[in-house]
Model the fold of this input.
Amino acid sequence: MALFANAMQLVAPVFTAQESGGGFKPPTMAEFFPEIVLFEGTPFAMNRIMLIRILMTALLLLLFWLGTRRMRVIPTRGQSLTEMALDFVRVNIAEDLLGKVDGRRFLPILTAIFFSVLAFNVTGVVPALNIAATSVIGFPLVLAVVSYVTFIYAGIKKSPGNFFKNSLFPSGVPKPIYIIVTPIEFISTFVIRPVTLTLRLLMNMMVGHLLLVLLFAATQFFLFSGEGFFKLFGVGTLAFGFAFTLFEILVSVLQAYVFTLLTAVYIQLALAEEH
Done:
């Protein structure tokens, strides 16, 4: 029922347009720039996506507060679920890549990244929200900057005088070759990493939203506006819509995992002995 409600929410604007004689209306990029709903004309102007971000941030804080406010030796069900969630990041990402000492050191930021990305991703399939809060570049870009700054901080903290030197001038390379190697290292290490982190998350969530809207909009069009045989296409697009909704949930989890994992990998590289 939740999936069906989500589908109806997605196609509601299309249904309205068709009733007024507008015909089939495919999704457009305008969906990612909704109208301002609060504080219009001020620096604090908010649209629907910003409100979703605030909602999910508050929900995350509430869930973790409820799960950790009364810690017991014999955990309650809520405490057990919270500990399992936190242990997933600690064991499978932080300590697995960075070891116990550095893993615990960077665990807070890795945990914050994982659960914020996950929470903001899944809003794309939540009825009445219907758009991922990471499908607009602001949040992915901020997280990429956080990851980038953490990576540089880890490297400078590990080797204050050699981090940038070793990053740009790898050992064992003949000096004349540095003319080629150093620009490549600079671009790949200090430019491409934050860009790819941002675009990977952004484009996955944008494409997922557009695909779901297209499928459910086509379903509504074929079932209510199609004639004869064409109504059968609506059954197919509806089935694909539900299938891709489940797939989008999987993508939401995977993107949270990949973003956090890559952040940990970059930290690990910064802490490597050669730095």
Observations:
- The beta strands are 36-38, 46-47.
- The chain has a mean pLDDT of 85.
- The longest strand covers residues 36-38.
- The first helix runs from residue 2 to 19.
